[in-house]
Design goal:
168 residues; alpha+beta; Glutaredoxin; 7-stranded mixed sheet; 9 strands; 29% helix
Amino acid sequence: MIKVGDTLPAVTLMEYSEVEGNGCSIGPNPVDVTKATAGKTIALFALPGAFTPTCSVKHVPGYVEKAADLKAAGVDEIWCLSVNDAFVMGAWARESKTEGKVRMIGDGSGEFAKAVGLTLDLTARGMGVRSNRYSMLVKDGKVASLNVEGPGKFEVSDAGTMLAQAKS
């Protein structure tokens, strides 16, 4: 499992974007993790699935609500990662009203989740291999803090915990 001080894996994620006003797609677009994190502070949180209960009711809304506070604390961008395709993440972004606050990025094949050693096998629930629930503060591509949730928990990867870490 990735740990504090490690560099994020050099993988490419996908993000769905739209042209404002006319709804024309300009995505999905590749997000090269190495390039996208260079010189930036990223509050990254990952979760098992788009539109799932805890993810949609608690995790994403918390980061949307605290986006301005996180940015005031020095965070350049907030990323939400999930083992879903970019189209699903785009629909979830629209539904969750994350525009300008949280980048909803798809780890469609679970490459990032596997590379950081934070997968969660939900095959028995019909969801396959997903990402574990966690958050990390990333500075210039390196992990500055890491908060991994226990099975079925939502206690340490929330926006409040991330905000406290970004301020310290």
